[in-house]
Every structure is written in C-alpha cells, then in structure tokens.
Amino acid sequence: MALSCATIGSAHADAGNFPNKPIKITVPWAPGGATDVIARLIGQRMSEELGQPVVVDNKPGAGGNIGTGSFTREKADGYSLLMATSSTNAINPNLYKTLPFKPVQDFAPITQVASVPNILVVAKDSPFNSVADIVAAAKAQPGNLSYGSAGNGSSQHLAGSMFLKATEVEITHVPYRGSGPAAADLIAGHLDLMLDTGSMPHVKSGSLKALAVAAAERLPSLPDVPTFEELGYPDFETAAWYGIVAPAGTPPEVQEKLNAAINHSLQDAQIKSRLEDFGAVVSGGSITAFQAFFVSEIDRFAILVKNSGARVE
C-alpha cells in the first residue's frame, strides 16, 4: 500500500493566509468517549496556536464508518479535519466487507496525537492479583473465565485474542455494545477480565485493579503496573491510537501548518498531563512518520483481525 500524493487543488490560493476562518474536527463517535475527549482537548489548544476557533462535530454510527465516510466528501482546504482512530482507520478496513471510504487514498495524515495502551483489568474484589493467577485459573478450567469487549473486532476483542495466543489459554469472549457496558459488568463481577483502553478512571477510583499494560514501557500514570514484556510475554503491545487527518488533496503547506500547530499543542505541559491522566501516551511527530504508521497499522491489524476470527458484514 502507498499513500496517494497530495494534489494542489483550488484551495491552494488560500493556503498562504491559512487559517482565516473556523476549523472543524469531525469525531466519528458519540460525545463523551475517548476520541471526543482527546479531540476537544487538542482542538482547544490548536485554536490558541492558529488564532481561529476549532470546533468538534460528532457524527457517530456504524462503528465510526458514518462519520469517517461523510468526512471524505469535505473540501480539501484544511478547514475540515478528522480525528482518525485505530478502530475506524486500521481495524474497520479489515473488519467490514465494504466501507464508505477508501482506507488510504481518501486521507492526508497530518499528525498522530496519542495512543492509549490496553490495560489488563479485573474487578477490585477479584481473586486474581496477577497475570500468572489468571493464566493458572484458565489452564485449570479452559473456557470457564470470560473477558469483555466493546464488540466483535473492537480493540478490546483483538487485545484479548492476542492475550489468549500469548498465554495459550482458553477464555470466553463476551462482546458488548460499547466498552462502557462491558466495564460496568466487569465491575459488577459478571466478567473476569478485560484488556481495555478506557478503564483508567475506574482504576484510579479503585473499582478496577490493573494487572499489566500492553505497552513498551510502564505508564507514567501507573508506575507500579508491569508491562506484559516484563512478565515474560515479549512483543505484547497493543493500543488504540488517535491522529488528525485531512482530506486527500489538502495543500502541502496547509498540512505543514496544521502539523506544526498540533505538535506545539502536544508540547504544552497541561495538555500532556491531562492526556497521561487519561492513560494516553503523547505522540506527535512529522507528517511522513504518521503516513508510514497509518499504512503499517492497516497491515498490522489485518493479521490481528484474521487471528481473532472477527468479521462484520
């Protein structure tokens, strides 16, 4: 796969004084979720950098496909951006038979904003206090334990599938319509575990215990929780990621200006602190780096989706 080169269209004439009006970030998920929170956080800081309002427009539905598909019809002038995610732009191309957008050709990646590693969590009163405890119980009674997810093909499902393969155990997958209901059932004791990206508030409140993080390094917000690699499971890294993209054909000079504004925003100590409190790892970087990552993630998730057996027609 290769990204199509950005072409200079009618917006080129306005590129020199960009931006001179409000910028919109489409979030293909409902308000209040991780994507929405991160978009609003970075959008507010971008507004200060660029001197124009940055507004968030939520367009949820069909696993993020509705908002992502409608975004590709926006004008390629830099005033319409999308908060792309690993779910919509890397998993869905491998999960859905048909999509209302072309996974690579329709987008001009600008900057990766952050990633949120999956965390292995259990209820506060769970008898499991380590990954070893879970593995031992699962091997003693194959299929007796259960893990929840936000649905077939979700990041939690794929992380759970990775966990089963890495530990060579059988644990029953229970898909929900969103990670919120799954987390609620985990807290209530109806599930045994989750590999989740949105459980940090529950861990901080004490309603969930974090046993391991699927990241290269320990999270600053969970310094006492080991990585899977530390526990003997190398290359066990999986995370939900978030990044800003523009429509394909957005003028290169506009892309560069947006990239600089986002990177400056991510260097803000308050923004970094709030993202880390959310369980996120701040990213940033060049357009070229995000382009390469964007494509590589589609290929990487092709393997994970295939291994999980997930499919949505």
TrEMBL record:
This is Tripartite tricarboxylate transporter substrate binding protein. Pfam families: TctC (PF03401). Belongs to the UPF0065 (bug) family. It comes from the Bacteria. InterPro entries: BUG (IPR005064), Bug_dom1 (IPR042100).
